[in-house]
Amino acid sequence: MSEVLEKVSQEIEKLRDEMVKTLVELIKIPAISPDYGYEGEYDKAQKLLEIIKDWPFDKVEVYNAPDERAKNGVRPSILAYYYGEKGEESPRLWILTHLDVVPPGDLSKWTVTEPFKPVVKDGKVYGRGSEDNGQSLVASLYAVRAMMNLGIRPKRTVILAFVSDEETGSKYGVEWLMKNHPELFRKDDLVLVPDGGNEDGTFIEVAEKSILWLKVRVKGKQVHASMPDKGLNAHRVALDFAYHLDRLLHEKYGERDELFDPPESTFEPTMVKNPADSPNIAPGEHELVFDCRVLPRYNLDEVLADAEKLAEEVKERHRKEVDGEVLPEIEFEVLQRVDAPEPTDPNSEIVKLLQEALRKLRGKEAKVGGIGGGTFAAYFRKLGIPAVVWATLDEMAHQPNEYAKIDNMVEDAKVMAALALL
């Protein structure tokens, strides 16, 4: 088997230039969620289907989650099957990557190239989505392509899943697939999600925190800033609430678990919005969002209950009747919620297989741990299917001048092939 793995690794090396070309072509196509005002993943999915149309996959399926906001009204996901040595009876390995990327952010901070005009420089491919998740997407493709070129059937059927809507909650991606096509998944499947890791590829994620994205809307009464007594400044109420919520959550949910990095729950105020467009307007509305990543030992319902109780206290502190209306009002909207499932067993087959592959190919011992959450793996764990998150990354995701290191892409493809072969 080591001889076969060596042949496949050598073939992957030969495909290096083609891998770079494919990554460049995919980066050129913005695949940003309608949640951010863009068209979604349709064009990128079509490009990927064009790239693989002549590849000898045994089966390629397209699943379109309906979303009227997106181009052609759909959010596509592609499953490409390469059967193992026992055909459809072979054990199965899923490798899941995502088509969507986050918006480019402040364009002035992109100093190497524009976000969707990829550049190859110093052994790296620059552009939005290059590392997150283009690097691993291309690595998974060419792990299989190398076996195809050599006429090798792996021990395990490889299912390459290229899925929409990872960046904004998976409602139109993995979650939709599992709700609408449960027949696709088996309890004895092995799952790799190459969407997290470290720069030497020695971290295997087996656990995630719960996720709660909580939007808070405060309603007051807009007024000229020189006459605050005639209205109610929603901004002041929101500041009061945000400060005390931040302190409350950190104090009450402050335990540590060294399995995770960071080892404690995190509660980060992220987005802020109010309609005042002049310095002399005291706004009547204010919105803020908290991104909460909560250790699995805590219950998200309790976190929400604490926020609601605090809201009542803040409302009472600022209570005022304006034009017959009792203010302020404080409302909540849960933008995303994922309750942490049971971790993948560190002694499960997929963990041991990945550790063995890294020993054989890199001579390194990989450790297991947990992260803040937000990957496809959590959805598989909820079904009782063991899943790991692993990749070799410089951790450039969501940053300006995002890049993928070409060596990481090539070397990870070898590890992915090993998971199918060993």
Automatic annotation (TrEMBL):
InterPro entries from the UniProt entry: ArgE/DapE, Bact_exopeptidase_dim_dom, Peptidase_M20, Peptidase_M20_dimer, Peptidase_M20A
Co-factor(s): Zn(2+); Co(2+)
Protein name: Diaminopimelate aminotransferase
Domain of life: Archaea
Record keyword Transferase present: yes
UniProt KW Transferase keyword: yes
MF (Gene Ontology): hydrolase activity; metal ion binding; transaminase activity
Classification via Pfam families: M20_dimer, Peptidase_M20
Keyword line: Aminotransferase, Cobalt, Hydrolase, Metal-binding, Transferase, Zinc
SUPFAM superfamilies attached to this UniProt entry: Bacterial exopeptidase dimerisation domain, Zn-dependent exopeptidases
Family from the record: Belongs to the peptidase M20A family.
Species name: Thermococcus eurythermalis
Domain Peptidase M20 dimerisation, first and last residues per copy: 206-317
